[in-house]
# Entry
Amino acid sequence: MRINKMIIVGQLWINLPMLIFAFFYAAAILKDSAFPYLTTTIIYIVVSVLYWAYMSPKYQLFAAKNLDTLREFKKFKVLANKSCLLCDKNFFKNIEIWSRKDKDFLKQKFQ
# Structure
């Protein structure tokens, strides 16, 4: 559930420059030269460049980390289920082995 919320928040952050641009453009149309179109376009370009330079890489890194973790967790569940079906005695041994490998993988991935 947390990952889904973060993806929604991230999409809003990614579209922030366009929302700001739409706001200023609407103000330019409604006020009729309060914000000239050229100024609005320059503001949009500056905001989007600053935004993509600072915020976007952070969000993309966060999303990539969460998706990798989710994929690894799904792999672990599938392998655990297969080993449980094959042999009940080895089930807990396999979980122990895979959890150790998973911890090592996550340590390497996030450090």
Summary: The chain has a mean pLDDT of 61. The first helix runs from residue 2 to 14. Residues 2-110 form one domain. The chain has one domain: 2-110.
